[in-house]
Amino acid sequence: MDDTNLLFIGAILSVALGGMALRLVRANKKLDWNEAIAAHILCLMFITKGIQNAATAYFNQALEASESHWQFWVSISMSMDYIFTGSALAIALLYPVPLLRTIKQVKVGLSLVGGFTLFCLGLDVVGLNLTALGLPGLLYYAVAIIWGSVYVKFRLIDPEKRNDSTRNVALVSGLFMTLILGHVWMWWPGLILQSNYFYFFDLGGGALTSSLWDFMWLSGYAIGIGAGLTMLGIEIYLALSGDVNKLLYVLLPYFVLGLIGYSIYSRGDDAGFIIDADSSEIIDLWSVFTTSLHFTVIRPIIAMYILLKFGLFDINEETKPMAKLMSIILIVVATSALLELLQSILPINQMISAALLGIIIALGLGWEEKSFHRLVTDPADMRIGLDKKWFPELNIPRKYISRIDVACMIYCIIAVLVAFLIWKMDIIIELSTTRMGGAE
User: Fold this and answer.
1) N or C: which end of the chain has fewer CB within 10 A?
2) Dihedral through CA 225, CA 330, CA 83, CA 136, nearest 10?
3) Quick one: average pLDDT of 422-430?
4) What is the dihedral sign for C-alpha 210, 211, 213, 218?
5) pLDDT at position 277, please?
6) Per residue in 303-312, pLDDT tens?
7) What is the DSSP string of 421-432?
């Protein structure tokens, strides 16, 4: 299985889970205002992320076939990535602890995030994308600073004030940071040891991006790695003191994989983020099993866990079947993808592979029954025992929150029109020619 097929699997997984999760979130009338907004945005973020994964896969296929409509797909991919960035920024401002504490602040904050998303889309139209105007790396700075500060505040709170709620606030913040920064953490040795594969990482490709753009993007990676190492150090210190948090078991694999990946990526000059003909086979394989798998499978798993564990779904007799269906889809699709990946590198007979798939899915469904029951019957609380000042009470009607869904749909329609315009006017080709010609 190559990277393109994994992107298609990630697209199906993200859109399916995001759509069903959105329906469950809309049905939950018990959520506080910040939880309702954040849950809506999280679901929409994964629906649009699924669209981006599919668009990127179609872009890869069109580029290999030298078809001109690759510009349409790359434009769709970039516009959906703007939604992902804006969604993460909005969630960070609202959840788990709201930084926007009045209705006016909520209006201004979300308007700025929405305006920035539209601004980035406008840069695509005028050919100023992939420039410093788009503030590359902003997402990583914001995530590291906002969720990182919340994590440190509640994880290192005075021992006499430390309780399950403070641990849960820290856990949610850490999980969201993992969701956004997990793939970056696997490159931490490259930053520390000053390796070429990190410092000469070129996402835009040659002269298409300026040195300033590359610096801003990499600086975002650097601050993200710094935040991750800080969290890992705190978790290890507290674990040795007898205060173990589940987050340690989430963080540790990323940094261990980073050590293994260092010996692999050091063979080349890139971090395997972009797989091309010049990449060695071992780098391609490692990238698919780490970076691509995080993008397409691990992210939906983290989002699903947050939605279930922290009460963003109201699980009752009416909604329980759909919630269980989401869990089953996640297990079946993720298991199938992993087995296909293994089959692509190991000489496993198809009949054996099919039998293994059936056994693993059966075991997974049995595990799902127990885990699902534990998640929905013992949701984690983040407010009991905490000062009420952390959670201001605002009266925001749900009908206004539901308008976020409509706004996202309108944005997607506009993005398709913009992508069609860019394709027909060959804006990206002309931009590439101009920038690369100027660099010669």
Assistant:
1) C
2) 20
3) 81
4) positive
5) 45
6) 988 998 888 8
7) HHHHTTHHHHHH
Give the whole-angstrom CA distance, residue 313 versus residue 31: 9
Q: Report how many domains make up the chain.
A: 1
Question: What is the tens place of the pLDDT at every residue in 72-81?
Answer: 999 999 999 9
Residue 310, judged by CB atoms within 10 A of its CB (0-12, 13-18, 19+), counts as buried
Measured CA to CA, the distance from residue 274 to residue 205 in angstroms comes to 9
75: CB partners within 8 A, 6+ apart:
124, 415, 418, 419, 422, 423, 428
- How far is it between the farthest Cα atoms of the chain? 66
Return the H-helix or E-strand segment holding 382: none
Task: Tell me the residue range of the domain where 239 lies.
Answer: 135-274
Count of alpha carbons within 13 angstroms of residue 325, beta-carbon side: 13
**Per the domain annotation, does 126 fall within a domain?**
no
pTM of the model: 0.90
Phi, psi for residue 173 in degrees, rounded to 5: -60, -45
Quick check: is 177 in a domain?
A: yes
Tell me if 224 is assigned to some domain.
yes
Percent of the chain with pLDDT over 90: 45
Q: Are 412 and 77 in contact (CB under 8 A)?
A: no
Kindly state whether residue 149 falls inside one of the protein's structural domains.
yes
Q: First and final CA of the chain: distance in angstroms?
A: 38
Please tell me whether residue 10 adopts helix, strand or coil conformation.
helix
What is the rounded CA–CA span in Å between residue 374 and residue 379?
8
For residue 226, give every residue at least 6 positions away whose Cβ sits within 8 Å of its Cβ, in sequence order, or none. Answer: 144
Instruction: Output 361 or 25, whichever has higher pLDDT.
Output: 25
DSSP assignment letter at 180: H
Cite the DSSP H helix spans in 186-291.
188-192, 196-199, 211-240, 247-265, 281-287
